[in-house]
From TrEMBL:
Lineage: Bacteria, Bacillati, Actinomycetota, Actinomycetes, Micromonosporales
InterPro entries registered for this protein in UniProt: AadA_C, NT_sf, Polymerase_NTP_transf_dom
Species of provenance: Micromonospora terminaliae
Keyword Secreted carried by entry: no
SUPFAM superfamilies: Nucleotidyltransferase
The protein's name: DUF4111 domain-containing protein
Keywords: Transferase
GO molecular function: nucleotidyltransferase activity
The Polymerase nucleotidyl transferase domain, residue ranges: 12-56
Pfam families to which the protein is assigned, alphabetical: AadA_C (PF13427), NTP_transf_2 (PF01909)
Segments forming domain Adenylyltransferase AadA C-terminal: 146-226
Amino acid sequence: MADLSARTAAEELAQSVVDIIGAAVRSVILHGSLAAGGFRPGRSDIDVLVVADGALSDPQIDAMVCRVGRTPLGTAAGIDLHVVTADVASVPTRTPPLELHVGRYERSSIGVEVERGVIAAPDLPTELSMARADGHALRGTRPHDVIAPVPTAWINERGRHWLATWRSRIGDAEHGALMVLTACRIWRFALEGVHCAKGQAARWALDRDPSLSAVRQALHQYESDPAAPIDGDGIAHVLDSVLRETSRGAVNTHS
């Protein structure tokens, strides 16, 4: 399979985490498209959530950042790694603390992004929810045993925050496809309580509203032609549509 080398990279990263943190590792969870399906070679990242007993030391953080930067990617486009304490994972809050985030984005102008000791991370509940829903443990305890359910209202609230933020950035050609496809994921979760891959979310959105041409363009760019354009007015139409749909409240209200 095309994602085998990415899986190997994920396994290598998981072992590096254990080597650095040692017995304090509660779980190393692979989630996202590589775990749940929809992985696109050269386009998808390796998504990893680490749950640890207690805070990381500065030398451990430095070592983790170094390993993420040096880990061979295989067919993946990058790595998105989050580290949280077991207490945070077992009792989620609306804006929980985050030990570490390292993002390595080979095809983006961002390059490498590092966040250490974040006091309040409002996007973390969504990360926890996705890891619990579709993740599996590469090392340690299974996701459902270390991550408690996250209220859907928190996830929907944060999704609408990003929709409104992106509405003012529709001229950002580099991130147009990401905005559109993630908007589709936000939409589906708000209505059905389902986390899914970008491609799956796009097809779901087109089934609901075939007039969303920017979704079709973003899907084509993501799956076939990275240079394919996406119409700015079409992006605005998608964001407006999803903002309107999600304002009506989620159909699925379970946690």
